[in-house]
Design brief:
The structure holds two protein chains of two kinds.
Chain A (H helix, E strand, L loop, with lengths): L1 H23 L7 E3 L2 E3 L1 H8 L1 H15 L7 H17 L4 H25 L4 H20 L4 E2 L3 H8 L1 E2 L2 E2 H19 L2 H10 L1 H6 L4 H27 L1 E2 L8 H11 L11 H21 L6 H16 L1 H16 L4 H7 L1
Antiparallel strand pairs in A: 1-2, 3-6, 4-5
Helix pairs in contact in A: 1-13, 2-8, 2-13, 3-8, 3-11, 3-12, 3-13, 4-5, 4-6, 4-11, 5-6, 5-11, 7-11, 12-13, 13-14
Chain B lengths: L1 H15 L7 E6 L5 H16 L3 E6 L4 H14 L3 E4 L8 H9 L4 E4 L12 E4 L2 H16 L4 E7 L5 H14 L5 E8 L4 H14 L8 E4 L2 H13 L9 E6 L2 H8 L5 E4 L5 H14 L6 E3 L4 E2 L5 H8 L5
Parallel strand pairs in B: 1-2, 1-3, 3-4, 4-5, 5-11, 6-7, 6-8, 8-9, 9-10
Antiparallel strand pairs in B: 10-12
Classes of the chains: A mainly alpha, B alpha/beta.
Subcellular location (chain A): Cell membrane
Keywords (chain A): Cell membrane, Membrane, Transmembrane, Transmembrane helix
Membrane topology (chain A): Multi-pass membrane protein
Chain lengths: 339, 317
């Protein structure tokens, strides 16, 4: 019940965006079964939101520690390149997946060490890999789009599991596992403690160093999964474009999810709803058939409206307005009396 | 080593009877921004070797100051000509004047500059509007009088290839009311975006049953869209005709599999026409036209796509 109350603004927003899209494209909510798989715009959104949703899971944890991870979009490119390189080199499906995940964890370890051990500001520490990483990915692919035909690996991008697209299953399962891990154990509480006050939590006995590194590695892991999906989707690794600017969408998803960039309390489910909202807007714009010059303006306009409606200031105003309607005008006359 | 190449090229030049001694040409390339540009570099080197020209290559890594420095060093070395693929259009006046004073002809490759046209010998490039027109005309011939609803995957919004290729295609299909562009969206010239946007086109057009053809501003977006069409249970190339531009190796692979119908070549061999013009200029001072337009050749499954794939895949695309 409490969770539902926490998620209410995001759920309402998502429904409102869906309604808006339906106005412009009436068939939006149609879902049909075709050849053992569900088909429809909504299913497409669940599938297409996979990269941002996965990034948002890791990003939520990083932001909860009062950090930020700008490198995730680039880590997608690196992991995609590693996976494609391994597949094209004939190393087999599981070796490719393992190497890609290893590359993601390594990238997270690098970020985590820079932030937790050396003490560089997170935005700068992760900026290093954000800039350098695309070069690393290009070195792996030798500057071209590295393609492969392995149907087993392509399954991660376009296969189906129980009628659902595999990318959707991957992000939902990852989200549920991560949320349970955080909330069924004290881990989530400890992460929040670090975000609120790292020194105080360290003095209270929280191993901040290890936890911080672990959080950045979790973000790297999520980016690796997103990288595998992205590469499998187009059956190739495009080092120049894979995951480009997705770190910003992931941060936006976390913020739309009502999480504070100042760290502390966090909700993975809300961030995932944020990712769904972003993707619904993206897909909605494509379905509505506006000229492409409008895409970014419409997206930005909707995001501003959503963030304004969710702002704490407006929530307070709304609360007082509702109370004043219920209780009649405030007793302003008494003041005049006193004078 | 240098003497050896010099000797070998001299022999080659005398053999084809163009000049008595080997010419030296400096080539300032933008960098390796895309597969197409890598192929352009490979082909320029190949062309120079075939003609026995000693090519001095300089990679500018997408920076104009590197290109200006390279041109100055070519002038100092006293090369016989300079090839320049300019990274931006403006800011070339002074360095081009220096080359002119040194009486070294400059040939622009692929992109143009805003300088006065007496500062360079000629520019070799493709007409992007014409490319779109060739694609449009192919579609007109292919569908005849049948009704055809076309979806279009545009390049990056506002970029000149996207604007020109859109204009050209519309010119190509003008006057044929049976062909109509029903949806047009940007796919940012990438595979991933091409696939995602095509998925939404398919959803919006009755599962793709209402779409007769796809026109993509580059081959990469078409390759992504082909996957989306296959995943929607339709046959690309049959249920939906595919026409795109660039002629990169992967589209020939799709064409060999019967999944693409036509592509218009943006040839990476800009150096061939450039060297032809230079040879004529060196020989008797013939001034070429100020703009040499490369051929926008149309490739269809009749043009041995499998063979084209084999011959292109090692060019560095």
């Amino acid at each position: 019940m409490q969770t539902l109350r926490r998620l209410a603004p995001q759920i309402v927003t998502l429904l409102a965006v869906c309604l808006l899209v339906t106005l412009f494209f009436p068939g939006f909510l149609d879902i049909s079964m075709s050849g053992g798989r569900l088909v429809g715009p909504v299913i497409d959104i669940l599938k297409r939101s996979a990269p941002v949703a996965l990034l948002a899971i890791g990003m939520t944890l990083v932001i909860a520690t009062r950090g930020i991870d700008l490198s995730v979009g680039t880590v997608i490119a690196i992991c995609g390149a590693v996976a494609a390189w391994a597949i094209a080199g004939g190393m087999g499906l599981w070796a490719a997946v393992a190497l890609a995940i290893g590359a993601g964890l390594l990238a997270g370890l690098w970020n985590g060490v820079l932030v937790a051990v050396i003490g560089i500001q997170p935005i700068v520490a992760t900026l290093i890999l954000m800039t350098a990483g695309r070069g690393i990915a290009q070195l792996i692919t030798e500057g071209r789009i590295l393609t492969f035909t392995d149907p087993g690996f392509a399954w991660f991008g376009s296969g189906t599991l129980f009628g659902m697209p595999v990318p959707a299953v991957i992000w939902i399962v990852t989200g549920v596992v991560m949320a349970q891990l955080m909330r069924r154990t004290a881990l989530g509480l400890l992460v929040e403690a670090i975000g609120i006050n790292r020194r105080a939590s360290a003095l209270a006995g929280v191993n901040a160093l290890v936890l911080l590194i672990a959080v950045y590695m979790a973000s790297g892991l999520c980016a690796a999964l997103a990288g595998i999906i992205t590469a499998a989707d187009i059956r190739g690794a495009d080092a120049n474009n894979a995951g480009l600017w997705l770190e910003l969408d992931a941060i936006l998803a976390v913020v739309i999810g009502g999480n504070s960039l100042l760290g502390g309390r966090f909700s993975i489910a809300a961030a995932l709803l944020g990712a769904l909202i972003i993707q619904t807007i993206d897909t909605g714009i494509l379905l509505a058939g506006f000229p492409s010059e409008y895409n970014l303006v419409i997206k930005a306009g909707l995001v501003v409206i959503i963030l304004v409606l969710q702002s704490p200031r407006l929530a307070t105003e709304w609360y007082f307005w509702r109370r004043s309607v219920r209780e009649g005008p405030p007793p302003a006359t008494t003041k005049e009396h006193a004078r | 080593m240098k003497l050896k190449t010099l000797l070998a090229s001299t022999v080659a030049m005398t053999f084809i009877g163009l000049a008595a001694q080997a010419q030296t040409v400096g080539f300032s390339q933008i960098g390796s921004e895309s597969g197409w540009r890598a192929a352009e570099t490979t082909l320029t080197k190949q062309q120079a070797e075939e003609r026995g020209i000693d090519l001095k290559f300089s990679d500018a890594q997408q920076k104009q100051e590197n290109q200006i420095a390279a041109i100055r060093s070519f002038i100092a070395q006293g090369v016989d000509a300079i090839l320049l693929a300019p990274v931006v259009a403006t800011g070339w006046d002074s360095v081009l004047e220096e080359a002119k004073e040194a009486e070294i002809p400059v040939v622009l490759l692929d992109r143009r500059v805003d300088s006065s046209d007496d500062l360079y010998l000629t520019a070799v490039g493709s007409d992007l509007v014409h490319e779109g027109k060739v694609a449009g005309e192919w579609l007109v011939n292919e569908v005849g009088d049948a009704e055809c609803r076309v979806v279009e995957l545009q390049g990056t919004t506002g970029s000149s290839p996207a604007i020109d290729r859109k204009t050209g295609f519309e010119e190509g299909i003008a006057g044929h009311d049976n062909i109509e562009i029903v949806r047009s969206q940007t796919g940012d010239f990438t595979r991933a975006q091409g696939k995602e946007v095509m998925e939404s086109f398919l959803q919006a057009e009755n599962g793709g049953k209402d779409i007769c053809a796809l026109y993509a501003h580059n081959d990469d977006m078409a390759v992504g869209a082909i996957q989306a069409i296959k995943e929607a249970g339709l046959k690309p190339g049959e249920d939906i005709l595919i026409v795109s531009i660039d002629a990169v190796p992967d589209i020939f692979k799709a064409m060999a599999d019967g999944e693409a119908n036509a592509t218009v070549e943006l040839t990476p061999n800009m150096a061939g026409p450039a060297f032809d013009a230079l040879d004529a200029y060196w020989k008797d001072g013939t001034m070429p036209e100020k703009f040499i337009q490369t051929e926008s050749k149309l490739y269809t499954p009749e043009d041995d796509p499998a063979g084209e794939y084999e011959s292109r895949k090692d060019l560095g695309y």
